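Saturday, quiet lab. Running sequence design on the structure tokens for the scaffold JK sent over.
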């Protein structure tokens, strides 16, 4: 089947599907492994697919736009200038209207892939990387839409997608201690949502990952980790509400989920810097009412 791929050469389109495509054409492109031989056409399509990250159709949003962008970035298909343009386009989506709640979480998820490219083959300046750390941390701290998966609408998953972004940054050896602390502060902000939202879509496991990879850097002492984990326990709330308040129970549920994930993964790690977290995590678990 011959598929004619045509992308306007003007500014990146905001429509989804992009001009020159319809959904069947994009599905056919996916079946063909997202192969676009012409680098200029691939670059234009990548920019245009950013608009699909906010589309209510999960196949367009998740199965095509995210998968295509991730695959191209992991194949090192874009140069530094093109990566910078894609990053900035995603920042615009992150800062734009929330709409139906898809665009920001999926912008964060794609930005985790952008961060990965810089980790694998550095292309961002020191200032750009620092700005991304601040952007990622601020995004995670600001999430208030805790919707995860819907059978019809698919994923939103803002906390988990933001945690993936933090994880890729935490893995980057170029980050300094202050930036690692900024990542940890963002994890704290969502580890135990004050609203009493109970995580049910794997968020604690995703939030655990940046903590584990910050630990792998060896930037913090055992005493500092003990203090960090101990400070999480009071976030559950007033002990007088223990087992008598739904929000308190939800916060306890979230914290134990995070701590158990970290304890298990640290125990199974072959990295001694990660394994050293176990005593501090166990002490925090024992301190939970």
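Result came back. Writing it out in full:
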């Amino acid at each position: 089947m011959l598929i004619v791929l045509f992308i306007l050469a003007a500014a990146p389109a905001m429509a989804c599907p992009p001009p020159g495509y319809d959904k069947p054409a994009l599905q056919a492109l996916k079946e063909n492994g997202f192969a676009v031989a012409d680098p200029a056409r691939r670059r234009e399509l990548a920019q245009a697919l950013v608009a699909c990250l906010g589309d209510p159709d999960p196949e367009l949003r998740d199965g095509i736009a995210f998968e295509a962008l991730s695959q191209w970035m992991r194949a090192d298909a874009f140069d530094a200038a093109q990566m910078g343009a894609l990053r900035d386009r995603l920042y615009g989506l992150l800062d734009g209207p929330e709409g139906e709640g898809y665009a920001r979480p999926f912008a964060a998820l794609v930005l985790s892939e952008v961060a990965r490219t810089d980790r694998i083959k550095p292309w961002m300046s020191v200032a750009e990387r620092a700005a991304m750390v601040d952007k990622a941390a601020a995004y995670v701290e600001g999430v208030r839409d805790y919707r995860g998966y819907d059978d019809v609408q698919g994923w939103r998953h803002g906390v988990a997608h933001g945690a993936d972004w933090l994880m890729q940054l935490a893995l980057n050896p170029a980050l300094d201690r202050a930036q690692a602390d900024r990542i940890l502060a963002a994890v704290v902000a969502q580890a135990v949502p004050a609203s009493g939202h109970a995580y049910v879509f794997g968020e604690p496991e995703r939030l655990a990952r940046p903590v584990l990879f910050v630990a792998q850097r060896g930037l913090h002492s055992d005493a500092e980790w003990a203090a960090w984990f101990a400070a999480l326990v009071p976030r559950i709330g007033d002990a007088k509400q223990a087992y008598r308040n739904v929000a308190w129970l939800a916060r306890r549920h979230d914290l134990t989920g995070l701590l158990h994930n970290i304890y298990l993964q640290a125990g199974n790690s072959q990295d001694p810097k990660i394994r050293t977290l176990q005593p501090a995590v166990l002490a925090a678990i024992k301190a939970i009412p």
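Notes for JK: The longest strand covers residues 149-150. The chain is about 60% helix and 0% strand. Ask whether to fix the surface positions before the next round.
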